[in-house]
Design goal:
173 residues; alpha/beta; Rossmann fold; six-stranded mixed beta sheet; three-stranded antiparallel beta sheet
């Protein structure tokens, strides 16, 4: 594996998250449930929900623990639900927050789970969206950064559990 290359700095990340919160704030209210996709989405979800609070929106919070990568550098093509919601979403708007959209499998499964749980409206938000060779079945409503087709780590993204804590987004290919 090559030495990490910084693709986007912590300062640029903060600016993009705040700009995204400004776009989202008019479309949500304090009864909206922010649903973080664990584990990678945790860093972005923390920053985004704080930014939304600065924009006058204090969302409820929950998480889904789903995985399609495990410790590999490519998706398994299957999504595993490791832990479900703790808060009811029936009749509420939901904002799914994820770190990166590759194939869209995890996001599609999260949308399905929340619709099945009775969410009135499901919005999706990803920090990074990578190019994909085929059209995705699920679109991301809000994207902070159009990422290159590289293996990303940092800011919640990892390689077998490493680099998640980096404040910058790194390329490791």
């Amino acid at each position: 594996m090559a030495d990490p290359e910084v693709l986007i700095s912590a300062a640029d990340i903060a600016a993009r998250v705040d700009a995204l919160a400004a776009q989202i704030a008019p479309l949500v209210d304090d009864d909206t449930v922010a649903v973080c996709l664990l584990t990678g989405g945790l860093w972005f979800a923390a920053d985004l929900t704080r930014a939304l609070s600065r924009h006058g929106r204090n969302l409820l919070f929950d998480a889904l623990w789903i995985a399609s990568y495990g410790d590999e550098m490519a998706t398994s093509g299957r999504v595993l639900l490791r832990a479900g919601l703790q808060r009811p979403v029936e009749g509420r708007s939901v904002l799914i927050i994820d770190d990166v959209m590759d194939s869209g499998l995890s996001l599609r499964e999260a949308v399905r789970l929340l619709q099945d749980a009775g969410a009135a409206r499901v919005l999706t938000c990803c920090f990074a969206r990578k190019p994909w060779p085929e059209p995705r079945e699920t679109v991301c409503d809000f994207v902070a950064w159009e990422a290159p087709a590289r293996f990303l780590a940092g800011y919640g993204m990892d390689v077998a559990g490493r680099y998640r804590g980096s404040p910058d987004v790194l390329a490791l290919d």
